[in-house]
DNA sequence: ATGACTTCTAGTAGAAGA
């Protein structure tokens, strides 16, 4: 089963590019982020015509996640548990039913900039960086609950985390950024230290492998990128991993997203 | 260089992204 994640940066602006990529890459499942659309305006028929079941968790203007699947989806839930006051659409779960069922978590982790710190160095409560770290703590709690079930699951999407210096062309430029600060990377490590496998690094140790290039300052032409779109696999899911790749060439096309798809192949 | 691009919503600028 081929499962992909793709931050499309707006479904209206990316419809053609997404459609073309689906036709070529033929993922069984696509986890989408930043659909920037309410559920009613998502062009679901266009994907249903390609054979996908479409489940969205949308929001006006910003954020929004979705799952497209050629295999049946069950037990769909929307929103990351742990804070009923959080209205941002960044999390969707479903169980994809193949030979073995896999619980899918599609996520759009908060960016976290600008970083605002109190005098004691802790994030200012109510600020964007505090929201990011709090969101990651809720994600940790959700991962612990799923691990306790001992089922195959994965958490994939735009993490807005640069895990290591080798995941950025210019790591020094990101030192104080919410994507690379020690607190952000530590929270990502805490997830991995639960026993989750980062699929790309399990298959490829090469530096300079990126999934995002800024629109500005010729970042793509200079290969000035960062790797921030990730798959974390539960132990039972990691057993099935046979491949993980980044569809880098997509970034050089007409009217691209600033992210490219990342995908795993699972033998399930 | 509190910038460059691109998206969204709104309605001619502004917010947000990373």
UniProtKB/TrEMBL annotation:
Annotated site (Transition state stabilizer): 160
Site residues (Important for catalytic activity), renumbered to this chain: 229
GO BP terms in the entry: DNA repair
Annotated active site: 108, 158 (proton donor/acceptor), 259 (proton acceptor)
Key words, A-Z: Hydrolase, Magnesium, Manganese, Metal-binding
Record-marked site positions (Interaction with DNA substrate): 259
Binding site for Mg(2+): 7, 34, 158, 160, 258-259
PROSITE patterns assigned: AP_NUCLEASE_F1_4
Gene3D superfamilies: Endonuclease/exonuclease/phosphatase
Entries under InterPro entries matching the protein: AP_endonuc_1, Endo/exonu/phosph_ase_sf, Endo/exonuclease/phosphatase, ExoIII-like
Note accompanying the cofactor annotation: Probably binds two magnesium or manganese ions per subunit.
Required cofactor names: Mg(2+); Mn(2+)
Signal peptide stretch: none
Single annotated GO MF: metal ion binding
Domain Endonuclease/exonuclease/phosphatase, first and last residues per copy: 4-259
Protein family membership: Belongs to the DNA repair enzymes AP/ExoA family.
Matching PANTHER family: EXODEOXYRIBONUCLEASE III
Protein name: Exodeoxyribonuclease-3
Record lineage: Bacteria, Pseudomonadati, Pseudomonadota, Alphaproteobacteria, Rhodobacterales
